[in-house]
Amino acid sequence: xxxxxxxxxxxxxxxxxxxxxxxxxxxxxxxxxxxxxxxxxxxxxxxxxxxxxxxxxxxxxxxxxxxxxxxxxxxxxxxxxxxxxxxxxxxxxxxxxxxxxxxxxxxxxxxxxxxxxxxxxxxxxxxxxxxxxxxxxxxxxxxxxxxxxxxxxxxxxxxxxxxxxxxxxxxxxxx
Length: 175
What we know:
By secondary structure, the chain is mainly beta.
C-alpha cells in the first residue's frame, strides 16, 4: 500500500553520510556583503555522479546560505566526516561564524589549493569541486553538480560517518 508513512519509511532506508560543505564568495560577487563571505553547512545528500570526469552531486536547502553562495563562488568543498567527527554535524547545522583566528564555527580551516574553498582540518578527507551545473526544481533543495579538481584522503583507515550512527535523520518527510 502506497501511504505517506510507507514512502517515508522507505526513503529513510536510503543510506546517507554526513558531510560539511564549504564555499567562499568574493565580496564583489555579493551585493549584500562588504567582505568575502564563507558559508558552511551540514549536508547528508551527496553522491558521486560521474566517473570521467569525476563529479559529485550535492543537495542543498533552498533557504541555505550555501544556496546563495555556491553559484557566486563557482566552487565548493565537500568535507567527508568520519565516525570521530559527530560533533561537526550539529556544529555546522547552524549559521556559520567566521572568526579572525581563521576558524569556522570554532574549527580551523585552510584555503583549498584549486578553488580557495575553505577546507576543514577535520574529517577523513575532502573533495574540492568546480561548480559544473546547478539544477533547480520545484522541491525544497537545489542540486549542485561539481567537477572534482582536487582531493585528499587524510585518514584512509577511518570509516565515514553514517546517518544511522548519529540518531539524526534527514530523509523521509519533514517533521
